Amino acid sequence: MNYKGYILKLFFRIFILIALILGLIYFSYKDQITYIILLSFGLIIAIVNLYQFIKRRFSAIDDFFESVKYRDFSRWFPEDRGPKDIRFLYNGFNEVNRTIKEINIKNETQYIYLQKILEMIDVGIIAYNLENGDVLWLNDMFKEIIDFPSFKNIRFVESRKPELFNIIFETYNREPNSITIALQNERLKVLISDTIFQIKDDSFKLVVLQNIDNTLNKNESEAWKKLLSVMTHEIMNSIAPISSLADTLQRNLELNIENPNENSLEVEDLNAGIKTIKNRSQGLLKFAKTYRSLSKVTNLNLQKTQVSELFNNIELLMAPSIKAKNIDIQFSVSSKRIQLDIDVHLIEQVLINLILNAKDACQKQQNPLIKVTASQTKNHNTIIKVFDNGSGIPKEILENIFVPFFTSKSTGSGIGLSLCKQIMLLHKGKILVNSIENEGTVFSLIF
Question: Is 79 exposed, middle or buried (0-12, 13-18, 19+ CB in 10 A)?
Answer without folding.
Answer: middle
